[in-house]
Amino acid sequence: MYPFMRISMELNGTADESPQMTHWWNNQKLSTSDVGHLDQDLVAKVNGDPTAWRLPGGLRHFPWIGWQRYVVLRPRTWVYTWYVGWVTHDVIGISRIPIVGPVKTLRGPEETIFFAVDAAGQQLAIEVVGRGKLGDGKFPTVPLH
Fold first, then answer.
1. What is the pTM assigned to this prediction?
2. E strand intervals along the chain
3. DSSP 8-state symbol, 4
């Protein structure tokens, strides 16, 4: 998928940005009971982007119509690798791609609760350290999950 996502970023006019890394095959869908124990003091609640269209699956990443605004997240304390997860009104999941350092995540149309876990599955405190729009040049080397 990397070549396709790289081409997608070029068509979007955001060739200097990291392409999307998380896809349906490398994230795990979770249930409400899987995240019911999350400590709400450790999550990052991010408002929805009113300009983002409600789009299914891969369409979220298509040039011109896909989601364009992002937040940059990182654990509040240093950890070598970690994983980012998300909770919305209709989708709960976690990326199975280990992250080193901060990560960009796209903002959809509704509020999203982001959470972080370490390699042992222990919840980490997560924080928003930046915001932007694809192509703005603010965080071009931060991976996009």
1. 0.82
2. 27-29, 44-46, 69-75, 82-87, 92-95, 103-106, 112-118, 123-124, 126-133
3. H
Distance separating alpha carbons of residues 80 and 100, to the nearest angstrom: 6
pLDDT, tens digit, 9 for 90 and up, residues 52-100: 877 666 655 555 567 789 999 999 999 999 999 999 988 899 999 999 9
Q: Distance between CA 79 and CA 84 in Å, rounded?
A: 13
Q: Which of 132 and 5 is assigned the larger pLDDT? A: 132
131 and 70 Cβ atoms separated by less than 8 Å = yes
CA–CA distance, 41 with 104 (Å, rounded to integer): 21
Distance (Å, whole) CA 140 – CA 107? 17
Q: Quick one: which of 37, 142, 22 has its CA closest to 94? A: 22
Give the 3-state secondary structure of residue 11. Answer: helix
